Amino acid sequence: MVKRVLLASPRGYCAGVERAVETVERLLDLHGPPVYVRKQIVHNAHVVRDLEARGAIFVESETEVPEGATVVLSAHGVAPSVYENAALRGLNTIDATCPLVTKVHVEARRYAADGYTIALIGHEGHEEVVGTTGEAPDAIALIQTVADAEKVEFADPERVAYITQTTLSVDETAEIIAVLRRRFPAIRAPKRDDICYATSNRQWAVKDLLEVVDLLLVIGSRNSSNSNRLVEVARAGGVSSYLIDDETHIEEGWLEGVDSVGITSGASAPEKLVERVCDWFRARGVDSIEPFQSVHEDVVFRLPVELRRELALAEAQS
């Protein structure tokens, strides 16, 4: 019988997700539907469905957007070819790429221009990795595991650099970097870690929570990299953990013999989903639902410059 539920902090929306979702919402307010969005604006099924209900149209490629229409690029970033295609179609392109992903793109371009081969630590096929690779496709080697790091070879071991996807496991990435440093002592590193503050903070919050819970539920969609990493962190710490889209995915059998349940949410999961999961437990007699070691994040990113211009113009004309 579950006696208490503890809420991890921080959890949920990061500044990059907040900015991307608000971008689509403000464009819908400004122009009305439709507003086209390339790929999922963030990796959360509920967010996508809510925006679709307001008139957003999600497409797989910018080439599907009608000529001259407005298209928003998702928070995960895109390859340079996407901007080129959009320009050829005369699209009004609003770039909602997370600034922390843009930082990684800039690093890739700089290292490649300086003649370095780049070890990109990340997951094959993830939109962020696809976009980053597109910045310097001839200079990048994808490293997914420690085994990859052990066997990769570079033409000039003295001119190697590494960058990473922003939503990786902090611990696993550290292991891969350690191997690369051992094998290539001259390897260049980003001045600041590429794994974003929100990913790191949510993983550390889970580690703290593991000391006092028997089960961890992570609210997030299957294609959310940072949400999957939270599940892995819990399991690596010896605590059962499951990824759920919402309360309808909770299985009663998971709770057998469980006294305390921890709840967290990935960086693209809205807080209303946490409330729905809490209500699910309240309906089953759990009265003790409280935050655990509350931590406040104060990072805020400005809206994309293209949108700020449109908003300023609309205000001047009103």
In helices, the fraction of residues equals 40-55%
Could you name the ranges where pLDDT drops below 50 across 5 or more consecutive residues? Answer: none
Q: Hey, roughly how much beta strand do the residues contain?
A: 15-25%
Question: What count of helical segments does DSSP give?
Answer: 11
CATH superfamily of the largest domain: 4-hydroxy-3-methylbut-2-enyl diphosphate reductase, catalytic domain
Shape, per Cα inertia axes = flat
Give the key terms.
single chain, 318 residues, alpha/beta, Cobalt-precorrin-4 Transmethylase, domain 1, Rossmann fold, 3 domains, five-stranded parallel beta sheet, four-stranded parallel beta sheet, 11 helices
Plain-language structure description:
The protein is built from eleven helices and twelve strands. It is α/β, with parallel strands linked by helices and 318 residues long. It has three domains: 4-13 and 197-291, Cobalt-precorrin-4 Transmethylase, domain 1, CATH 3.40.1010; 15-97 and 301-317, Rossmann fold; 100-183, 4-hydroxy-3-methylbut-2-enyl diphosphate reductase, catalytic domain (Cobalt-precorrin-4 Transmethylase, domain 1), CATH 3.40.1010.20. A five-stranded parallel sheet has the order 10-9-11-1-12, sandwiched between helices. Strands 3-2-4-5 form a four-stranded parallel sheet, with helices on both faces. A three-stranded parallel sheet has the order 7-6-8, with helices on both faces. Strand 6 (117-121), helix 5 and strand 7 (140-143) form a beta-alpha-beta unit. Helix 8 packs parallel to helix 9 (225-236). The relative contact order is 0.18.
